[in-house]
Structure formats: structure tokens, C-alpha cells
Specification:
Elements lengths: L2 H11 L42 H29 L11
Length: about 100
């Protein structure tokens, strides 16, 4: 049973549950509202605020910048390969 604490730690670390907010007592996993039923619950109350991802802008930049760089590099190398092998050579007289 020595693996049980490790299993519980890993389950807590990698669970798909959102972190609990202060002031709320909740017993089950946090469910995100998908917006398909409108802004109001069945009893007429507004749905709770959507969860905000911490450092979401920084995470987006960390993904977007390398992706753009890799895409630009692949495009540049592909164009150089096409010109080198005379597959596609742009004409200069298309002014």
C-alpha cells in the first residue's frame, strides 16, 4: 500500500477539476457552463461567472510565437527548395 499516497498525489495533481475558489464550498467537480441553455438557470438566476485561466495571455503568446516562427521557417525553406530545383521560379517581368 506504499503506492496509495503517490497515486492520490498524482490524481490530485493531474485531475481535470478546476481549482476551488475561496468562499465556495463545493463537493463535486467544477462544471463549466457551455452557454447552450442561455444566461439563466432553470430557477431564473444568472449562471456563475466563467472560469478565467491564470496567465492565459502569456500561455497564448508562448504557443503562438514559436508556431509562427516554425511556420515562417518552413515556408522560407520550402520556397528556397522550389527555386533551387526549378520547380517554381517567380518571373521578374511581371511588373
Amino acid at each position: 500500500h506504499a503506492m496509495r499516497p503517490l497515486f492520490l498525489l498524482l490524481r490530485r495533481t493531474f485531475s481535470l477539476q478546476a481549482p476551488r475558489q475561496q468562499g465556495y464550498s463545493q463537493t463535486g467537480p467544477v462544471r463549466c457552463y457551455d452557454g447552450t441553455a442561455g444566461a439563466y438557470t432553470e430557477c431564473g438566476a444568472l449562471h456563475g461567472r466563467p472560469m478565467r485561466m491564470r496567465l492565459g495571455g502569456l500561455r497564448a503568446i508562448i504557443v503562438i510565437v514559436p508556431s509562427l516562427f516554425i511556420g515562417a521557417t518552413l515556408s522560407k525553406e520550402g520556397a528556397a527548395f522550389l527555386e533551387e530545383n526549378d520547380i517554381f521560379v517567380p518571373d521578374d517581368d511581371d511588373d
